[in-house]
Design goal:
The chain is an alpha+beta fold. The chain folds into two domains: 1-31; 32-103. The protein has two helices and four strands, in the order H-E-E-E-E-H. The chain has helices spanning 2-23, 88-102, and strands at residues 34-41, 47-53, 56-63, 66-74.
């Protein structure tokens, strides 16, 4: 009986691990209003993420224990790939400079 219980628990853990790897760690069903467009790793524990909410984009800073909105902008186009002429980091810098000019 103990061997059977151990086997069932092992199968459950293996199934959860397999589903996580298969789905990339994201939850199933992307039916909500939020979508991650892109991101940039600042350090091992800090990130900047571009989140699409309806017809606008939010630039969000994520650190352990805190999430802050850094910038809000209208929905637009991103460069095709990180190896293109303007990677995400340069695009983000350009947007922040453009915002500072408008103030």
């Amino acid at each position: 009986m103990l061997l059977g219980l151990t086997l069932i628990i092992g199968i459950l853990f293996f199934g959860a691990y397999f589903l996580r790897k298969l789905n990339g760690g994201r939850s199933f069903g992307n039916s909500g209003p939020l979508r991650i467009v892109g991101g940039l790793m600042i350090s091992a524990r800090e990130r900047i993420v571009l989140v699409e909410v309806g017809d606008s984009w939010l630039v969000v800073g994520i650190v352990p224990g805190q999430i802050k909105t850094l910038h809000t902008l209208a929905k637009g186009e991103l460069p095709a790939s990180p190896g293109s002429d303007r990677p995400f980091s340069q695009w983000l810098k350009h947007l922040s400079e453009r915002k500072n000019e408008n103030l």
